[in-house]
Amino acid sequence: MSVLDVRDLRTHFFTRAGVVKAVDGVSFTLEKGEILGLVGESGSGKTVTGFSLLGLVDPPGRIVEGSIRLNGKELVGMSDRDLRKRRGREISMVFQDPIATLNPMLTIGQQMRMALEAHGRVGPRAAVTRSEELLAKVGIPSPRARLRSYPHEFSGGMRQRVAIAIALLHSPSVIVADEPTTALDVSIQAQILHTMRDLARETGTALIWISHDLAVVSSLATRLAVMYAGRVVEEGPTAAILRDPRHPYTAGLIASLPAMAEPGTALTQIPGTTPSLLSLPPGCPFAPRCTHATEACTSEPVLERHGTRGWACFHPVGGVPA
């Protein structure tokens, strides 16, 4: 049984201007210890997908359809009280900006103890031991002393490590990481990625890494799900997708990576802009930007499985899938 099984998830926002279909039929599974990269341009629905998994979508947004099964338990339709019992204990989230999620008035030790006590009584000594253990695991030097520090006394990379340690306090089955290295410099980013990969391997915690940066995700994730306009348009093993992308959008993302351009030449760009989710074109939402589009693309493509791969396109690019 998969740790997480998402089926036909649809999260819509009901605004005065109309219905925004931020997540429109997303499906994927996650196995124990697996790292799934959820990638795509800004506005593709990645973050709303992550928030939906934890029941963190606020009005005017709501899940209108679909299933989210965590360790075999259905989360869609679950009461707020029951969701809170699972949030942090079975599924946790690491947000993009740790300074916005850590309380500046409390020490790191106080915040970690509060997180532990949210799901049961914990003695002071046990709380310190567990907190110190996890700070050490994520690479915080002198962990016991740093429990008495406040968030502003840490660098950006260290604060993100603390946020990861808090997410790991209850050994959750799944951690959703929403672009947690975006604001960090390249060397710190690499350290965080290495830490997360090792933690997933050691603890068996499954990880969903949300990012617009395909280069970052490719060095971490074992599997990729590429999103566009609220839908997964391609999914499969990371190495296979990078070597042989089948959806034109995925091929465009890979071609636009700086590493793919010759020094001194202009970077490749995907033509056009992402469509408004209030007025998506009929059929394939990528068709207006796609050089392979034909009359067939006025019908909506369905993501079809091809072995370990899957893509939603009438005119896939590339060769025979690996």
Automatic annotation (TrEMBL):
One of its GO terms (cellular component) is plasma membrane. Keywords: ATP-binding, Cell membrane, Membrane, Nucleotide-binding, Transport. CDD domains: ABC_NikE_OppD_transporters (cd03257). The keyword Translocase does not apply. SUPFAM superfamilies: P-loop containing nucleoside triphosphate hydrolases. GO terms for biological process: peptide transport; transmembrane transport. InterPro entries: AAA+_ATPase (IPR003593), ABC_Ni/Peptide_Import (IPR050388), ABC_transporter-like_ATP-bd (IPR003439), ABC_transporter-like_CS (IPR017871), Oligopep_ABC_C (IPR013563), P-loop_NTPase (IPR027417). It is a peripheral membrane protein. It is found in: Cell inner membrane. NCBIfam families: oligo_HPY (TIGR01727). Belongs to the ABC transporter superfamily. This is ATP-binding cassette domain-containing protein. The lineage of its organism: Bacteria, Pseudomonadati, Pseudomonadota, Alphaproteobacteria, Rhodobacterales.
